[in-house]
């Protein structure tokens, strides 16, 4: 087996790792998008309740309960913002991992191509040598 063919096996393996890293990156980015959507929904929900409280004219007791509820929604917003931060960190790590695997795949592919070109050059030299040898024999046979 030629060196370029052996290298192709390594390139294929690196490509599979790169594809796996790309899939993980896509999942992590989707999680960030989902978390951001959830945060936006929570903010919208809190905004609706805040505006309704001002319109309802509630008693002091109900206003206190209402405020506790709004406070819990605000706490959920803070927690969701933290979740987004964690999701973004994970997506950043996945991006770096994917970039590393992509770089490795490209390097291996470049090396495989370099070996392939070297093999072609060696084969071309061998063919040229054989052709020269054959021509020399014909020439020598014709001169006898």
UniProtKB/TrEMBL annotation:
It is found in: Cell membrane. The keyword Protein transport applies. The keyword Transmembrane does not apply. It comes from the Bacteria. InterPro entries: Flag_assembly_chemotaxis_eff (IPR053716), Flag_FliJ_proteobac (IPR018006), Flagell_FliJ (IPR012823), FliJ (IPR052570). Keywords: Bacterial flagellum biogenesis, Bacterial flagellum protein export, Cell membrane, Cell projection, Chemotaxis, Cilium, Flagellum, Membrane, Protein transport, Transport. GO terms for cellular component: bacterial-type flagellum; plasma membrane. It is a peripheral membrane protein. GO terms for biological process: bacterial-type flagellum organization; bacterial-type flagellum-dependent cell motility; chemotaxis; protein transport. Belongs to the FliJ family. PANTHER family: FLAGELLAR FLIJ PROTEIN (PTHR38786:SF1). This is Flagellar FliJ protein. It comes from Marinomonas ushuaiensis DSM 15871. The lineage of its organism: Bacteria, Pseudomonadati, Pseudomonadota, Gammaproteobacteria, Oceanospirillales.
């Amino acid at each position: 087996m030629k060196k370029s063919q052996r290298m192709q096996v390594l390139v294929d393996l690196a490509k599979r790792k790169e594809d796996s890293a790309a899939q993980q990156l896509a999942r992590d980015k989707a999680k960030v998008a989902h978390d951001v959507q959830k945060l936006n929904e929570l903010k919208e929900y809190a905004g609706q309740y805040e505006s309704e409280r001002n319109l309802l004219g509630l008693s002091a007791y109900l206003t206190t309960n209402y405020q506790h509820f709004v406070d819990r929604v605000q706490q959920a917003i803070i927690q969701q913002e933290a979740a987004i931060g964690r999701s973004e960190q994970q997506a950043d790590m996945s991006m770096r991992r994917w970039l590393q695997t992509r770089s490795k795949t490209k390097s291996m592919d470049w090396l495989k191509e370099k070996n392939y070109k070297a093999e072609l050059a060696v084969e071309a030299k061998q063919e040229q040598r054989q052709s020269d040898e054959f021509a020399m024999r014909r020439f020598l046979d014709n001169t006898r």
